[in-house]
Amino acid sequence: MSTTLSVRPSWPVFCLTPQLQSFYNAVAAMKAVKDSTNPNSWAYWVETHRANCPHGVSYFLAWHRGFLHRFEAKLKEISGDSSLVLPYWNYYDSPSIPPEFLDPSSPLYRSDRTGTDVTGALSYDAFADTVIRFQRGKSHAFETIVESRPHNLVHNLIGGSMASIRISPRDPVFWVHHANIDRLWVAWLKAGGGRKEPLTTNTYWSGDLYYGPAVDGMPRVWTADTTSYLGYQYDNETMPSQSSSSVMAASAMATSGAPLRPATRVSVPFGKSRALSLDEQSLNVDVALGATDAARVRSLMLRPTAGSTENGPVRVVLDGVHLTGLGHKGGYFYNVYLNLPAQPGTGQAAGAYLLGSVGAFEISVAQMKASMKGMHGMSDMAGTATSHGHGVRLVFPATEVLQRIWPDNLDKLSVSFVRVDGSRHPTKGVVMKVDGFRVEADPSM
Question: pTM higher than 0.90 for the full model?
């Protein structure tokens, strides 16, 4: 076990140290090695992430903690600087990509990014007082929520390589983004208030984490904290503060006083499917319920929900979801809401109506899960293969949202796709197509 802890600083603090040049040197040297089987190459770490990273399943946080630790060791080795550590980008304080990543002469530069500001990704949902459980598969679990938002949303708004799980580590900003996600895990646990993860003696931590054939693996239990085995801490281990932690980033809802719910553009009967195209405009779909369907939904709302709600008795299903060439570039995502009010008011915050989000990154995760047989886990966005021959299935459980907002009238449900763009020129045109959208429910019992 380590006795002397290294300290990972925020990016602005890191930039004032000699280690910045060591970081530049190591990144440039790794990019110059083209053999993807060589752990001294940048490509090795991209491939290791593609082949092994658990997204949308258990151990998302644990695997990436070990991944960053092994990568940090390689940076030290290649740079010859034993004091080099991996810094973090605290976008809750500074949502714009640090300027050192935007200099074309820098090894940290990527020309394919479609956004440089991630303000629209800054959800505080994972830090709510009600989020006290850790592991995926339990309701209100930190790992599930923090992966969905802000993690996935930051990937989406930066776009380019970051918009695809298969190649996201090509972008050097990936590493400082994931260091911040790792820091947020530390901060969440240290905040107390009932927040806890399984004890290190729990079988949850049994087994090992794998980082490719040329890098040592790691016992899962080593990642239960950063200090006992891994030997580091962060210079700031406090959660982001927000007056109302249940509020989704206000910027995602446009300007104050603007309509929340988009004007209805299409409609579909309950349980029936129709095709959708998503472009630069937000979209609202009205789903008409007959008396029998309304009674069935109401009866399902009365049931207690416990444990996993991957699909849930009432759900929004998107079948055959696929990106256009434009959509693959990223730089956007859609927040998906159920019965979002037409205008801001004094009632529920917008986050109460949130089903989840979908963008290029979530679709790439679903594609990966569909291609890896047997890889099925708990997620608030389930990705499985479809029968359409292309595209993926996305399922958004809706029961808990219905129970939270408890609509008085169930003659229809409204599903809103609210577009959130990054900071550069918004992508105009169709970015995503859905072969079959529908809202469905299990038979009443």
Answer: yes
